[in-house]
Amino acid sequence: MKNLILTIILVFVGGTLLQAQMNSGSKFVAGYNQLSFNSNSYKEKGSSVEPDKYTNFDLTTKAGYFMKNRIAIGGMVNYNLSRTNYKVSMSKYTNTSWLIGPLARYYTEYGSLIPFAEASVGFGMNVSKQESDLYNSETKHSVFGLKGGVGANYFLNESIAFEGMLYYYYNTLKPKSSGATGPGHIESGLGVNFGIIFYFGTI
Fold first, then answer.
1. Non-local CB neighbours of 189 within 8 Å, separated by 6+ positions
2. For a disulfide at 56, which of 23, 82, 108, 151, Cβ 3.0-4.6 Å?
């Protein structure tokens, strides 16, 4: 009986604390990162040449402020670096991009698992470089991006949660290099983010 009463008290107190984290004036900070190494499987029989190697690093940081209960606005910064070393041609391809912009979130309900919807707008730059002993080239694009998705926070305690989010993104890239022509191109698709989010609540 004592254990049951204690459990009820803990659930009630925990729910109150989680609710406080999303009251007006509360804040959150979230971080996502990905680091991957790959090598392709293409290799001619009898060849001693190593396969190409690919490296990707992606970091996104978000911060927000609850203007109203369960409604937060804030901003995000994204940095991505990918690099491929081509062994046969002895060349390197590097792609660097960054985005910064506002975001808005709406949380649907309180509990240990809290779903939310998010929308953001990003402005930034993309730089691609090709380097070898024979030539070097660089291409720059300005980037305008839209992103929307749904996700959920699973709270480990009253301030720290594990976050997952499924999103759709739509980026338009326009050439900014000297002498570049053309309307640019569009990148779009689905993605998944996983990270840790910290809440600083007020009661």
1. 168, 169
2. 82
Label each residue of 18-48 as H, E or C: HHHHCCCCCEEEEEEEEEEEEECCCCCCCCC
What pLDDT is recorded for position 50?
65
Beta bridge partners of 92: 85, 131
Q: How confident is the prediction for the chain on average, in pLDDT? A: 81
Bridge-partner residues for 55, per DSSP? 37, 83
Instruction: Return the amino acid letter for 55.
Output: T
Q: What is the pLDDT of residues 134-152, one digit of tens each?
A: 878 888 999 999 999 999 9
In a domain, 117, yes or no: yes
Whether 140 maps to a domain, the answer reads: yes
Burial 116-150 (b: 16+ CB within 10 A, else e): bebebbbebebebebeeeeeeeeebbebbbebebe
Rounded-to-integer distance, Cα 116 and Cα 132, Å? 47
Q: Give the whole-angstrom CA distance, residue 163 versus residue 85.
A: 33
C-alpha to C-alpha distance for 176 and 125, rounded to whole angstroms: 9
Domain that holds residue 12: 2-40+50-200
Tokens 């995000």 appear where? Answer: 76
Tokens 């029989």 sit at which residue? Answer: 45
Record the pTM.
Answer: 0.76
CATH code (residue 149): 2.40.160.20
**Total tally of structural domains belonging to the chain:** 1
Task: With respect to residue 45, please indicate whether it lies within any of the assigned structural domains.
Answer: no
Helix (H, G, I), strand (E, B) or coil at 121: strand
